[in-house]
Design brief:
This protein is α+β, with helices and mostly antiparallel strands. The chain is built from 19 helices and 15 strands. The structure holds flavin-adenine dinucleotide. Flavin-adenine dinucleotide (FAD) binds at residues 368, 376, 379-380, 382-384, 387, 412, 418, 420-421, 424-425, 447, 450-451, 453-454, 457, 462, 464, 467, 472.
């Protein structure tokens, strides 16, 4: 269960302040901090908390330059901290520039906007006010002049310069610059539409628009679905040669040669493979569950629900479906308070494998192969499996909209070997799974929560550099899923996403290559 009592948990990517860490986080930090002082009982704070969480997700890439923190002033142990900072009303925001001294009480932000975009712009304004204490990780945000661009490759050791042409009051260029700050081999600068000589040299007609300029003098316009921040950042982060700091991309063929990995199975990155789904079944039923010698209470309920949704919705080969049905019937007949894993295993290995019902043994990752043994594999197939099941439940008109999600929730909570993953998933489930009232929203719920996890894990050690965590599906994979609000903010076209998911995870679309 969730350890923190306040409005935020560790999975929100917000630093949770306490008397123990407050000094080290706020003072003499190389990053600037924007801090929310709140009280759990204050309705405005509760109403503001989704915005604060969305902001944290939105500016995740900016963290080395500017980060978010929060402190619950309703918690008695935090009272003294809040009093010292002169907090009397909630929510209150205070900005702490990089390298703030321990005497600093922060700069109060009065009448702040309650939307992510306004808060983001405020943070940029504040970042720009640093002078000699400029946060070292923060790239220059000022506009670039023609002279600077002409001398750029003489004075900078990078191959690629991305120029965002825009009007003076636009924040896009600065936002993209910050979105790219954790990436190497590229520099982003903004150029104003009033730099007429550069504008005509580059042949710029639209503002904003983004151009690439390389060290051999070649100029090209960045192709994007929409001329907006999210689309520029996504496209620039994926340009050949641009890599996340500390995550060089070694070609897969070299990795295979240099390691003991099995043969690489070429696959289509935009498809689901039955071999992954069957491998997920094998691993969860024969490996993950085997750690539980006897299964009782909530765990037994979880197992029954899991096997039941598999029996109903797993879109497998007839022999696999038949196997799942056999296991399901056996489990439903177990009326005791407890079962032994060895009895369950006996059904899997003996009852099932004798007839035309088969649960293939062993794992053979295909679409979920990682470039190294410790990447991807099982967790990738768990997500894929449950996306497939939510879509199948929709196609088969399950009477219970939450059936598959609740089965996933309890399976993850009782058995998923990655315990921090289980805690994070449970906190998302507690927050909003109850709001799922239709089979379509169940499909979308899992998609959007998976994207939250992707956002949180992007750039982490566990991320395979060959399969970076993105907000999925990408604009290339599903152009119609992506839209733009009037303000220039990215938006998901949920109806299109639903259509896309229903096709992507449909049984007819699953590839059967490499099946044993
Ligand atoms: P995955 O994220 O595993 O995705 C698999 C495939 O699904 C992708 O290749 C893509 O084709 C597709 N996909 C991607 N995004 C979406 C989406 N939004 N909707 C539909 N399909 C999508 N790891 C941690 O380090 N910390 C955690 O807290 C954590 N929590 C987890 C919780 C759960 C319930 C699960 C199943 C896994 C969790 N993991 C966690 C593991 C992590 O999410 C990844 O599964 C793992 O790092 C492997 O990543 P991957 O690149 O194979 O892609």
């Amino acid at each position: 269960l969730i350890a923190e009592a306040g409005l935020y948990t560790a999975s929100d990517q917000i630093i949770i302040l306490s008397p123990e860490n407050v000094d080290s986080v706020l003072f003499n930090s190389s990053a600037a901090l924007l801090v929310e002082f709140y009280a759990t009982w204050c309705g405005h704070c509760v109403a503001f908390s989704p915005t604060w969480k969305n902001l944290a997700r939105d500016i995740k890439e900016w963290k080395p330059a500017v980060d978010l923190a929060a402190i619950d002033c309703a918690d008695e142990s935090n009272r003294k901290v809040c009093t010292n900072f002169g907090i009397t009303g909630y929510p209150a925001l205070k900005f702490f520039p990089a390298y703030s001294s321990s005497e600093s009480r922060g700069q109060e932000f009065r009448g702040f906007s309650r939307d992510v975009r306004g808060l983001r712009h405020y943070m940029i304004n504040k970042l720009e006010m640093h002078n000699e204490t400029w946060p070292p990780a923060c790239p220059p945000l000022e506009t670039a002049s023609e002279a600077e661009i002409d001398n750029f490759f003489q004075t900078n050791n990078v191959k690629l310069l991305a120029l965002v042409f825009e009007s003076k009051d636009s924040y896009v260029g600065r936002e993209v610059t910050l979105d790219l700050l954790q990436y190497e081999n590229i520099v982003v600068r903004r150029v104003l539409d009033t730099e007429t000589s550069l504008v005509s040299r580059f042949g710029v007609t639209d503002f904003p628009s983004c151009y690439l300029y390389n060290s051999s003098g070649h100029i090209s316009r960045l192709k994007v679905l929409n001329e907006a921040r999210t689309f520029y950042s996504y496209a620039l982060q994926r340009l050949p040669g641009v890599v996340r700091t500390g995550k060089p991309q070694i070609p897969i063929t070299d990795l295979i040669k240099n390691s003991t990995l099995q043969e690489w199975r070429p696959f289509n990155k935009t498809r689901v493979y039955m071999s992954d789904l069957e491998s997920a079944l094998h691993y969860s039923l024969r490996v993950e569950l085997s750690g539980h010698i006897s299964i009782s209470g909530d765990d037994l309920i979880a197992l029954k629900k899991y096997i039941n949704v598999l029996a109903k919705y797993f879109p497998g080969r007839p022999s696999v479906k038949s196997a799942l049905n056999t296991v399901d019937s056996w489990l439903q007949q177990q009326k005791g308070l407890e079962i032994k894993y060895s009895d369950f295993r006996d059904v899997l290995d003996n009852t099932v494998q004798t007839s035309d019902a088969v649960l293939p043994e062993g794992v053979q990752w295909v679409g979920c192969q990682g470039s190294q043994a410790h990447f991807r594999g099982y967790p990738c197939t768990v997500w894929t499996l449950f996306h497939v099941l939510t879509v199948q439940a929709k196609e088969m008109s399950s009477p219970d909209p939450q059936e598959v999600l609740q089965a996933m929730r309890s399976y993850v909570s009782s058995f998923f070997g990655c315990r921090p993953c289980a805690t994070h998933f449970e906190s998302m489930a507690q927050e909003s799974m109850d709001h799922v009232t239709s089979l379509s929203t169940a499909v979308l719920w899992l998609w959007s929560r998976h994207n939250r996890v992707n956002n949180r894990l992007a750039g982490e050690l566990s991320e395979d550099p060959h399969f970076p965590k993105i907000q999925w599906p990408s604009p290339e994979l599903c152009p119609s899923c992506h839209g733009l609000k009037k303000t220039g903010e990215h938006s998901w076209n949920q109806e299109e996403v639903l259509t896309f998911l229903r096709n992507y995870f449909s049984s007819a679309h699953i590839l059967t290559d490499y099946l044993q």
